[in-house]
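Example record

The entry below shows one chain as it appears in the dataset: sequence first, then structure tokens.
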Amino acid sequence: MQRSPYDTATALLPLVGGPANVTSVAHCMTRLRLSVADRERVDTEAVRAVPGVLGLVADGDTLQVVIGPGAVVAVTAEFETLLGTTGTTHRAPGHPAPGGLRSADSAGLAARGAELKAARARRNATPLKTALRRIADVFVPLIPALIGCGVLAGFNGLLVNAGWLPWLTPALAAIASGFMALISVFVGYNTAKVFGGTPVLGGAVAAIVVYPGVAKVTAFGVALSPGQGGVLGALAAALLAVGVERWCRGRVPDALDVLLTPTVTVLVAGLATLYGLMYAAGVVSTAIGTAANWLLATTGPLAGLVLGGLFLPLVMLGLHQALIPIHTTLIQQQGYTVLLPLLAMAGAGQVGAALAVYARLRDDTSIRTTIRSALPAGLLGVGEPLIYGVSLPLGRPFLTACAGGAAGGAFVGFFAVLGDRVGATAIGPSGWALFPLLTGNRGPALAAAVYAGGLLTGYAVGFLATYVSFDGGVPSDPSPRRSG
């Protein structure tokens, strides 16, 4: 009998230390994300044992309880109800830990995988990586809108190219483009929220970036253009606004705070945005687009090999979300990001490696059950069930999965050198789920064909490399792999 979301939330709350120990609640596509005041009050093994929980990843005072797509939304709502909160939750293209674990062997691999992730996260908690994760937190809540608008933009493009429904395409274009036209405002709002400022002040300052009137402003001898600097300019503007607001809070008398603090914040950060940040961010944004195009046009197979081969370790550390500002910048500039299809090949290598382990361990029903339960998510680009449930704890399959991703990336990169760029109109999905978002400089049909060829290459190389090199043994001491 399937456990209800209420039962799952009720079982989890005391195991994470009770309401007083939970400081924040959010969710991504597959995980309930909790921040706790005292990690020692959390019974991690009991949390993993709760029916309906597929896994647990603990990183400092942050707990990521893997529940699965769809179910996590309902459980989060029930959890917030139990806490009596109305906090904002958000979705992201999260990645669950191992699913469907019902036996000692597979559960052991899952636990080992979670321990490896936690150890790597602790050893890689540098100030730079912490800052990158916080920047990712700015963009993660925007992904559902990016996906929805991206799918509509791609569908509208098909209608326009085919000459169908001309009465509908202008409306679809407006619906798909409205969010992207104002995405800087949302970035500014979230930036202030994440970094401890007043969200609406961050949004107000970031709104300057897209205001049409900036065309009348000249900076460094050049007239500004609305949207110049894009999301990077909005991010920088909101970060400055947070700094100015904090400075004011400590110096302005309480009686005047409500009047002076927002005024000074908007004025100082706004002027700095107009006469410096927009211009600088515009230069950086242009450089990102130019570099991405040059990289693929001149070193396509090599670039694809490196990006596809190294993306799984980034996913493992959660740092892949730090690439979201780059993807978003490319989408703003060119209408699609050429990097995401290359990076998505890592998931294909992971699927191929898992299938090889499945074929090798014919008598190990527990691990084969884990693979069967995690494989559908892997095919849709959600790689962590296979990473932490199978390949990383087993050791060598993780490396051969990276090899498969590198091969798939090289395949897609080869076509980029020939002039056939493959891009995604939005970020979030990968694997098979990316097909509705594919486009390129020569149309969506060719882009989908090249991308499909890359997936097949990643599957094949990941499978063959794993099948040949993996002897079916489980490493007795995973400690050498814990270093990050």
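Notes for this example: The longest strand covers residues 22-27. The chain has 17 helices and eight strands.
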